[in-house]
Amino acid sequence: MSATTTLKEQVLTTLKREQANAVVMYLNYKKYHWLTYGPLFRDLHLLFEEQGSEVFAMIDELAERSLMLDGQPVADPADYLKVATVTPSSGQLTVKQMIEEAIANHELIITEMHQDAEIATEAGDIGTADLYTRLVQTHQKHRWFLKEFLAKGDGLVS
């Protein structure tokens, strides 16, 4: 961010990015939910649906936080991919690749939201800093659940 960008503008930029990330991540989760297979189908099908639903709820929280700060959320579908740092899932993936991709996306967002919370704190915006702290906890929980599938899948995840 440029030196002339105000702290409030920086906070609004982070909110737009994380809202766009949540949209892309939600769509990735829908893909995983629909295309999972194998001996853990039911468990993963339900987990991907649950985690996707929690990410979906984040979209509205982040958009409304932007509005509370007199900003504008990302509202044009074409803009989501321009703003997001999470990459849309593409191609046919194995179940293991789906899980690894989701873990990597959670790790990216956790790192970004830690930085975003620092920017919000520096701007004196404890509401946004608190929102990021809460969302980080959810992303950490999602990452943990997914890592457990890889660690304790007894060879069932491939």
Automatic annotation (TrEMBL):
CDD domains linked to this entry: DPS
Organism: Thermosynechococcus vestitus (strain NIES-2133 / IAM M-273 / BP-1)
Matches recorded under PANTHER family: GENERAL STRESS PROTEIN 20U
Membership in a protein family: Belongs to the Dps family.
Keywords: DNA-binding
InterPro entries (UniProt xref): DPS_DNA-bd, DPS_DNA-bd_CS, Ferritin-like, Ferritin-like_SF, Ferritin_DPS_dom
Domain named Ferritin/DPS: residues: 15-153
Keyword Calcium: no
Molecular functions per Gene Ontology: DNA binding; ferric iron binding; oxidoreductase activity, acting on metal ions
Pfam family of the protein (one): Ferritin
SUPFAM superfamilies attached to this UniProt entry: Ferritin-like
Highest rank taxon of the organism: Bacteria
The name this protein goes by in its record: Dps family DNA-binding stress response protein
